[in-house]
Design the sequence.
């Protein structure tokens, strides 16, 4: 089981993530950088991420295809995980342009060794179309509602009643 944490490039550059993650096995961490944030200096950001990544933390680009930086984050940060934004996955089963874009991103990810998670899957048709395109995992309301961390910690979350938010397909 892993823990995904969203962080802006600005937070990463503070150098405080080592403090925040102290005592947590870095091999269980996934740091999600949103595509909606601007990055002024990719070299500086990569240097700040280096100690965490060397220790086993994985990097994800969140909302890929929707944000400010377009595909630059993917190219410059070389993430282990690429999370396709819901603007791409929504109605993908009936929209040839979205399907073509998703297919291209999935094929790119396979060639560079990244895993692709499709966000915002809300219908059976979207899920099956993504599976046919070769996506690695999916998340969205069709698969399960988000779960409050407190419910998981207190044991009130019943995992078989609501499937995990990210599901391998």
Sequence:
């Amino acid at each position: 089981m892993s823990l995904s944490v969203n962080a802006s490039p600005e937070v990463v550059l503070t150098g405080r993530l080592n403090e925040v993650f102290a005592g947590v096995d870095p091999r269980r961490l996934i740091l999600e950088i949103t595509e909606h944030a601007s990055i002024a200096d990719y070299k500086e950001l990569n240097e700040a991420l280096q100690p965490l990544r060397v220790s086993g933390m994985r990097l994800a680009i969140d909302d890929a295809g929707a944000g400010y930086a377009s595909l630059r984050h993917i190219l410059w940060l070389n993430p282990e995980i690429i999370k396709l934004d819901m603007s791409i996955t929504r109605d993908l089963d009936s929209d040839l342009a979205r399907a073509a874009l998703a297919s291209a991103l999935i094929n790119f990810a396979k060639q560079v060794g990244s895993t692709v998670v499709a966000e915002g899957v809300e219908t059976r048709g979207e899920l099956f179309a993504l599976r046919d395109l070769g996506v690695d995992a999916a998340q969205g309301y069709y698969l399960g509602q988000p779960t409050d961390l407190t419910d998981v910690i207190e044991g009130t979350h019943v995992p078989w009643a609501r499937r995990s938010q990210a599901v391998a397909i």
Summary: The mean pLDDT is 87. The first strand starts at residue 3 and ends at 7. The chain has two domains: 1-59+68-74, 80-169. The chain has eight helices and seven strands.
